[in-house]
Amino acid sequence: MENILSVAIGAAVGLIGVVFGSWFTARRQDRMWVREQKLRAGIGFNTAVVQLLDYLKESQLSDDGPGANELVNRMQEARSALYLLCTSDTVDLADALARRVWRTRPTEGRADRKAEFRETLDLLRQFTRRLRQEIARS
Q1: How far apart are the C-alpha atoms of 113 and 97, rounded to whole Å?
Q2: pLDDT, tens digit, for every residue of 88-117?
């Protein structure tokens, strides 16, 4: 009887260990997946914003051709992913940056527009820093 009890206790402890190990592994894999998705969305958003800003240095968004439309679509798609994955602080910065990009006009040598463009780049840097912090914490 004593042997059966010790075997049952050992089996129960082993089963608890397997369940806990499986739960821990699944949780870690979920965190890694979310982290990777945040990284992909952030890269896509930043890339589209930078390309749009480069485009806007020379021409207005209202005069956009297929290239600008594609960039806007990519930015919106990445921003949607950020909405689903990131904290409200990061999403708020992404929204502010997107609104800022919409308002950015070609610089064409005008000092006021160059200052506006620099402010947009500063906001992009701030968003990138915030996203890095969030990814590092996840």
Answers
A1: 16
A2: 999 999 999 999 988 776 656 666 677 888
